[in-house]
Amino acid sequence: MKRNLLFLLGVVVITAVLLLIGVPVYTMHILVQVLLWGAICSGWTLLGRFGITSMGHGAFVGIGAYGVVLLWNHLGITPWLGVPIAAAAAMLLAFAVGYPCFKLRVVGRNFSLVTMAMAVVVQLTIIAARDVTGGSLGLTPKAQTSAPLLALQFPNKNVAFLFALGFWLVVLWVMTRLNASMTSLSLAASAEQEDAAEAIGINVAREKLKVLLLSAAVTAVGGALLGQYLMYINPETLSGSPVSLQILYASIAGGMYTVLGPTIGSGLTLALTESLRVLFGTRFIGAANTIYGLMLILFVIFMPQGIWGTILSKLQGRTSRRARSLL
Amino acid sequence: MDTFLLEAMINGILLGGVFALLTIGLNLIFGVIDVVWIAYTELVMVGMYAIYCLYSGLGLPLLVACLIAVAFVTVLGALVHFLIIAPILDSPPINQLLATGGLLFFLQSFATLLFTTDFRNIGVRLPSLQLGGMFISTARLLAFIVALIAVTCLYLFLKYTYWGLAIRAIAQDRHIIGLMGIDQRWAYGITSAIGGALAGLAACLLVLQYDIQPFIGNSFGPIVWMNCVFGGLGNLVGGFLSAFIVSEIIAISGYYISTDLSYACAFAAFIVIMFFKPRGIFSK
To answer: What CA–CA distances, in Å, run from A326 to A50, A176, A191, A211?
Structure first.
């Protein structure tokens, strides 16, 4: 607990310093995105670290982002209400897919493929409902200029940063709470031997479902905030299977068995993309992802614990694959 | 029966031919090596670009360009195995899935880097056949016939050659095979090369129907994995049949509901079937 407080204190101090010295707008823009994607990836790892590899979290990101903007644009419902509604919708979808999956023991690779199909269905539905959602062209939330915060819009990057930071901290807190919970132990047990876990009285399906719902909600809120921050949502960038893959790769690259790993992973991903863009401009579109793809292959082959996971286990002299460290 | 429905159904069956080719390629790799290549349809994309470069760029005859492209993708298939899959053969299945997912990003972005995201085509368009008020695409008919021939050849290879026997034996029991004096590494390499060859062939057939762009694999990839699981991962006959069933679902729901949602319907059907028949619709 003490370590967590120290960490929180550190974050507050760094934030205060950043805001006082005034960070350039561009840096702030990157930081906000790192925090939001970091939170989304952390939401994914809630489930992913137990060997339940969802390849469909893009669906929840999409429902979060689209739910909020559609409610606001068409019905005038403020995003403050829209976010919980969208999160509930994502949880409903997670339940509809997750309940039969876990009850009927759709596990491993099959679970990945089912969830990926789910993401594809959501993306195609968004594109097909183009009268409401704008189809592949995407959608912009109606700007609320007089009181942007009432519509959860952030013309001021510093405000956006504080929101993203707050959300990210909440997600980290959820992660550490979950780590210390009975649910986590049950799922760790069922990841090793599902039958054995059932035999000692763990309701594996229910525990998995609980974590999936939590993870879907976190991801949906992250997607909603991302949409609100970027003020533009698009079925390619905020839903569907490529986004799902990006989420899980950033988590794996960073290290999904640690708390900070997913954030570090998404930070590195964004840093790589942005720095290559700054270096080469638009001359080499695709260069960033080419390097990224190569890195992913190398990671899976040589560093399956991810960057942060490897650093931590080197530091602690541990080689356990599931180094259950707090930070 | 309505002519349009009949036309949709016939086109669905013809579309199934290419899907069957890809499904069998991926399923063969799965059955023998026990990995799912998420980037499998990206090999098709590479093949299509190869044809584009050879035919439109260098001006080679189309048939020669196609043959070279098939050879190229065959080698690529073997390389994917030896460079990416072989080092992690003993890791959990999900890691192999992830490594080939990295390959997916790599190939798509590398193609973007080389060719940009512009749509390209080789400028060869085959006419449509008119048959009693129905229009049937010649390119699809050709693809269907070639796909059937290729599948037959593969069947004969697996049935009557030494390495075919070895590959079938591995699919049945991978651990005992070393005792029979078969080098697994070669069998895996050959399987991957065959997988690549089928992808290359599919590229030749698809290049006549679709524009080439770096993300074209995304439009076929999920469908092909779905076919594999639908028919039972590793079950070649099941995969072959399910390719036609799935393309019929797409064609018929495209007719009754909307073409936009036809793929969504196929995926939704897939999810439901996975709940009840996780080992494929032909499992007992």
So the answer is: 16, 7, 20, 18
- Which residues does A308 contact at the CB level (< 8 Å), separation at least 6? A254, A255, A258, A260, A261, A264, A265
Q: Do A248 and B263 touch (CB under 8 A)?
A: no
Residue A290 to residue B271, Cβ atoms within 8 A: no
Nearest CA in chain B to A290: B106
Mean pLDDT across A155-160? 85
A316 touches chain B (CB under 8 A): no
Interface test with B, best of A50, A296, A302 (most B CBs within 10 A): A296
What's residue A259's pLDDT? 86
Structure-token match 């607990």, residue found: A1
Q: Can you tell me whether residue B135 is helix, strand or coil?
A: strand
Please identify which residue in the block is written with the tokens 């929180």: A8
Whether the complex's predicted ipTM is more than 0.90 is answered with no
- pLDDT tens digits along A194-242: 888 888 888 888 899 999 999 999 999 999 999 999 989 988 888 877 7
Give the integer Cα–Cα distance in Å for A58 and B103. Answer: 20
Over residues B32-37, the mean pLDDT reads 84
Alpha helices (runs of H) in chain A, residue ranges in sequence order = 2-21, 25-48, 57-70, 79-103, 108-128, 130-133, 157-179, 182-192, 194-199, 204-230, 235-238, 241-254, 261-280, 287-302, 306-316
Question: Is the CB of residue B149 less than 8 Å from the CB of residue B157?
Answer: no
Q: Say if residue A323's pLDDT is above 60.
A: no
Q: Which residues 6+ apart lie within 8 Å of A134 measured at CB?
A: none
Domain boundaries, chain A: 25-240
Neighbours of A111 (CB within 10 A): 26
CB burial of B220-247 (b: ≥16 within 10 Å; e: otherwise) equals bbbbbbbbbbbbbbbbbebbbbbbbbbb
pLDDT above 70 covers what percent of chain A?
95
Element (H, E) at B34: none
- Tell me the three state secondary structure of residue B120: strand
What 3-state class would DSSP assign to A155?
A: coil
Q: What are the structural domains of chain B?
A: 3-276 (1.10.3470)
Q: Which residues of chain B lie closer than 8 angstroms to A105, CB-CB?
A: 278
Positive/negative CA dihedral, A179, A181, A185, A191: negative
Most A-contacting residue of B84, B91, B271, B276 (CB-CB within 10 A), to test interface: B271
